[in-house]
Amino acid sequence: MKNLFLGAAALAATLFTGVLPSHAETTECTEITSLPTTITAQGIYCLKGNLVTNIATGNAITIDVNNVTIDLNGWKLGGAAGGPGTFANGISASGVKNIIVRNGTVRGFYRGVILGGSSGSSGHIIEDILADSNRLAGIQVEGNNVTIRNNKITDTGDSAADGVAFGISVLPSIGVDIVDNLISEVSETGSVSGIRVQSSAEINISNNRVFNLRTAALKYGIVASFDSNRVTFRNNVISTGSGGTVGIGETSINSDNLICVGNTVIGFTSNFSGCDFGSGNASL
Fold first, then answer.
1. Per-residue model confidence as pLDDT tens digits over 121-163
2. Which of 120, 133, 155, 231 could form a disulfide with 95 if both were Cys (CB 3.0 to 4.6 A apart)?
3. Residues 222 and 251: beta-carbon distance below 8 Å
């Protein structure tokens, strides 16, 4: 059994030191040259250099139309100059469809990437993003048929205004894939979550790694809350050292039809909570 955990730790260390895969540069695109900016026409947009802003409210990039791709081309969208009390978001879309955000760094905002809206939000893809040093959430989504994959989310939290922080936050949604993401160093005074799914259904959370949840009184690894339903947790690796609250499963508010298969969880008071079916899980 000890070898199992040593193997998982070695794998985690290898994955943490890796880098996001590079993509061929998108050149057939409309270059974003200044911030803040609002996109009102469908198409492919890109960065061809780092862009920074000191705004403390609003959005660095606002998307107001369906069918938009933003390719950061490996460059940085920076908002740290807005200060620790910033409420400015990096890339934001509300009530639109088929938004793709990919391939670069979003650093120092309140929320790095937020795609949502209570009506009409669907079909989004967020991939190969380094969401670094954002204050409330690295990535937040609300909508149907959304994919969040292969992102690295680090140093989230420590906002001057909030006592909570999330690596990935999913608000009411149906049909979301959250796969192959790395979340590390989430810190706050009250509650932190590596991945939190709220009031959602048909959610697949697979092959993610969550490490180093710090400071908070309540530490959650990958959890479903507020009556989420039909959520599958598969082949995730979660470790917080000691003092974690729930590793995988539900929080105190009831969720149903939770499937927990092949996960490794270390360091929580309840490594698994509320799994209606569990198989092949390991805990310490």
1. 999 999 999 999 999 999 999 999 999 999 999 999 987 667 8
2. 120
3. no
Show the tokens assigned to 145.
């048929």
Give SS3 for 258.
Answer: strand
Q: With 0-12 CB in 10 A as exposed, 13-18 as middle and 19+ as buried, what is 112?
A: buried
3-state secondary structure of 16: helix
Q: 9 — phi, psi (to 5°)? A: -65, -40
Q: What is the DSSP letter of 97?
A: B
Predicted TM-score (pTM) of this structure: 0.90
SS3 state of residue 262: coil
Distance in angstroms (rounded) separating the CA atoms of residues 191 and 46: 35
Domains of the chain with bracketed CATH = 2-283 (2.160.20.10)
How far is C-alpha 196 from the chain's CA centre?
9
Q: Which token pair is 91?
A: 């890339």
The amino acid occupying position 44 is I
